[in-house]
Design a protein that fits this description.
47% of the residues are buried. By secondary structure, the chain is α/β, with parallel strands linked by helices. The chain has two domains: 224 residues, Aspartate Aminotransferase, domain 2 (3-Layer(aba) Sandwich), CATH 3.40.640.10; 124 residues, Aspartate Aminotransferase, domain 1 (Alpha-Beta Complex). Bound molecules: pyridoxal-5'-phosphate.
C-alpha cells in the first residue's frame, strides 16, 4: 500500500456529522459563526494564548499580520522554509534579508541576526521549522534592543511548548497553519496568536474586507475568514489531538531507534526545555559518510511505493520566482541542509512496522 510523507488525521465520520448538523438549522455557514467562535476559544485554551484570530489558511494569516503591522523596509528571515514565509514578506512589498540557520535544528541562527540589521530593518520572521523552536530568548533580546517586530511562522509548531509555555506566546505574533497536512488541521485554515488587542481588531477587519460595521468600511481588507465546516473539522480534531501527538511520538522514537548511530545520517535532536509535537521526521543524508545520496534514498523508497519529500528544497531564496535577487551562498548552512534533507513519512496513523520497513530500505543503501 502506498505510503505518503504525510497522512491527514481524520476524526470519526459520525463525530463530524454531529458537529455540522446544527448548520442545517442555523444556515449560518461562514462569517464568524458559532463554530468559528467556539474553535477560537478552544484554541486559546489549548495553545494557552490570550487571543486566537482564525483565518482561511496559514498563509493569509501571515500576509495579513504583516500588513496589519504597517511595516516598511527589510525583514530578517530564513530561506529554509516553505515558499509561504518568503512570499508573505514579498507580497507585502517588504524585502526579505536571509539569515543562515543552525546546523542541528535548522532554525534561524540568532547569533547572525544582528549583523544583518540595517536602518531599514523593521521585523524578524523566524520559522519554528519542523516544530523545532527558534532561540526565542535571543530573538526577543535582539528585537527589543533594536525596536523590531517579531512574527513567528509557527506553521509546524502546533502544541509545542517552551519551558511549559505555549509557543504562540513568543514575539509580537505567531502564525499557525491548520492545513490538512499539519499536526492539527481544519482542512484548510490558520490562525494568528497575539497578546495585542489592537492587532486583533485590525486582523478582524482585514480578513473581512475592512468592514468596521454595517455603515463603515475604513480598511482596505480582503477576505480570509474561516468557514463553519472547517471550524467543525477543527473542533473534532481538537478532541483527539493529544492522542494523535502521542502516536506521532511512538513513530518518532521508532525512527530514532532504527536510524541513530548510522554514519552519514543526521537526525533531529530533542531540544532542551521543549515539549515537542513530532510534526516531521527530517534526516540529513551526508553522501560521503553514508555512501549513498539523498536522491538514491528517495528512489529506493519510491520503488517500494513510499513517497518522501525534499523538505525544504530549494531554499526560498533559490526559487525561480526570485531568480537573480538573492545570493544563497550567503547562507551556507541552509544551502547544505537544503541539498541533503529528506523528510520521511510521519503521521499518527503510520504503522510502526512500516517505520521499520522504511528504515531497512534506508539502511540497506549504506555504502552502495
Ligand atoms: C504550511 C505552511 C505555511 C502555510 O500554511 P497554509 O495553511 O498551507 O497556508 C506557511 N509556512 C510554513 C513553514 C508551512 O509549512
Amino acid at each position: 500500500m502506498r505510503i505518503n510523507v504525510i497522512r491527514s488525521s481524520m476524526p470519526p465520520f459520525e463525530e463530524y456529522m454531529e458537529k455540522i448538523r446544527p448548520l442545517w438549522e442555523s444556515v449560518w455557514l461562514t462569517n464568524m459563526g458559532a463554530l468559528h467562535n467556539e474553535l477560537a476559544k478552544r484554541l486559546e485554551e489549548y495553545l494557552e494564548v490570550p487571543n486566537v484570530s482564525l483565518f482561511v489558511n496559514g498563509h493569509m494569516a501571515l500576509e495579513m499580520v504583516l500588513q496589519a503591522m504597517d511595516l516598511e523596509g527589510e525583514v530578517i528571515t530564513t530561506p529554509f522554509t516553505f515558499a509561504s514565509t518568503t512570499h508573505a514578506i514579498v507580497r507585502n512589498n517588504l524585502t526579505p534579508v536571509f539569515c543562515d540557520i543552525e546546523p542541528d535544528n535548522y532554525t534561524i541562527d540568532a547569533g547572525r541576526i544582528e549583523s544583518l540589521i540595517t536602518d531599514r530593518t523593521c521585523a524578524i520572521v523566524p520559522v519554528h521549522v519542523y516544530g523545532c523552536i527558534c532561540d526565542v530568548e535571543a530573538v526577543e533580546q535582539i528585537a527589543r534592543s533594536h525596536g523590531l517586530k517579531v512574527i513567528y511562522d509557527a506553521a509546524h509548531a502546533f502544541g509545542v511548548k517552551y519551558k511549559g509555555k505555549g509557543i504562540g506566546n513568543f514575539g509580537d505574533a505567531s502564525m499557525f497553519s491548520f492545513h490538512a497536512t499539519k499536526v492539527f488541521h481544519t482542512i484548510e485554515g490558520g490562525a494568528i496568536t497575539t497578546d495585542d488587542e489592537e492587532l486583533m481588531d485590525r486582523l478582524w477587519k482585514l480578513k473581512d474586507f475592512g468592514i468596521k460595521n454595517e455603515d463603515i468600511v475604513d480598511g482596505i481588507g480582503a477576505n480570509a475568514k474561516m468557514n463553519e465546516f472547517c471550524a467543525a473539522m477543527g473542533l473534532c480534531n481538537l478532541e483527539h489531538i493529544d492522542g494523535e501527538i502521542e502516536k506521532r511520538r511512538l513513530v518518532f522514537e521508532r525512527y530514532m531507534d532504527n536510524l541513530s548511530g548510522i554514519d552519514g545520517i543526521s537526525l533531529l535532536k530533542p531540544q532542551k526545555d521543549v515539549t515537542p509535537n513530532y510534526a516531521y521526521y527530517p534526516v540529513i543524508i551526508n553522501e560521503k559518510e553514508f555512501g549513498a545520496n539523498r536522491q538514491q534514498v528517495i528512489d529506493a523508497l519510491a520503488e517500494e511505493d513510499i513517497h518522501v519529500r525534499k523538505y525544504f528544497y530549494p531554499l526560498t531564496s533559490d526559487m525561480d520566482c526570485y531568480r537573480g535577487r538573492f545570493d544563497s551562498s550567503l547562507t551556507p548552512v541552509a544551502k547544505w541542509a537544503a541539498d541533503r534533507a529528506v523528510t520521511l513519512p510521519m503521521s499518527a496513523s503510520l504503522d510502526l512496522h512500516d517505520v521499520d520497513r522504511i528504515c531497512d530500505i534506508v539502511r540497506n543503501l549504506r555504502g552502495k
